[in-house]
Sequence to fold (421 residues):
Amino acid sequence: MTKKTPSQSSSLDDWLFYLESVHPANIAMGLERVANVANNIGLLNTPSKIILIAGTNGKGTTARCLESLLLAQGFSVGTYASPHLIRYNERVRVNGEELADQFHIDAFHQLEQGRKDTPLTYFEYGTLGALAIFKRCNVDYVLLEVGLGGRFDATNIVTPFASVITTIDLDHKEYLGDTRELVAYDKAGIFRENTPAIIGDLNIPHTMTDYGKEINANMTLSGSDFIFKENAESFNWQYKEHNLEIDKPAIPCQNAATALTTLSVLNLLPSESIIRSCLANLVVEGRFQQLSIEPLVFTDVAHNPESARYLANKLSSYKDKGFKIHALAAMLADKDKAGVFKEVSHLVDEWSLASLSGPRGDTASNLQNALHELSHHNTINSYDSVAQALNVILPEQQSDTMLIIFGSFFTVAGAINYFKK
Fold:
């Protein structure tokens, strides 16, 4: 049965339901379909300068950092990110703000007129919709987060002004491969000839730099071309003539250094006072986000070993202050549960595990099996949902305990919604 296409007067929820319902079950890899639709409606002919941002972790914080530093200089900026935490509108920002539903509805309507019989995935609709919105708003710069990998991601149809790689680690192994070299090669697919390519990873696989040299990308590498040092309270960044020492930001210093280097390479670095102000006030939802002071509760989207290592550093600082750590984890079934738990288990005094609903969600029982292989904890509490766990945990939480809720964007969304209610 043919799905009825919503109209421009339909709700955004109707459109999102439609996009999910027409998602093709089997679809050819490659960018030809998406590029054809984009060309049909003129999305690739844009005066906006596009910065493509790929990486296993850190895309969102690097993009938010770039967005803040560009806006502070008076540029108009469009930012595309995924997934969202609470509302679809979070995926597209113009000048740091989410847009009214009608912007998305108009963009999806435009896509339906232009795609004809070409099948598109949900993410491809979202990517093209964002490009349509940014062209409509005529922004100076577009910050485009790559969804998965790089080479065959829908975002890679654009001609970037610069390409940025934040970090390289193992995730989505069924698509990208099971070695860092394979993952790096896939992500390097966003590089272009004679175009800036800034790489922030601390241990760059040779496959990435080999490909960059092969196509003559203008690479700027962490550890050799630019360096940063993270101290207890401060952060030092050095690139060419720049040697900046500032207060440590709330985001990972590695991402801040990558963003600063990107702007410097593009001759867009603002004054030191603007840098200090932007980094001091930078907050990214779901990244070690504080939900409550009493009781002390944080949430984090950490869902792979690399992001769990960053979370462990944050937890260590609270452990050093004398806090006990209670961890509530809920994850997706396709994630490296054992790898994630291994990075944080030595810091956790009490564990609670929750099931995630949905086709990709894992059960608390499976998480418990993974944790038992690593942890000495005899008592591990299990719950059917994040909300159910919080109903039990919060009334009993002591003042000397910090609760961290982590494991997935879905987990963080559940925690945020719980505290909003």
Summary: The first strand starts at residue 49 and ends at 54. The mean pLDDT is 91. The first helix runs from residue 12 to 21.
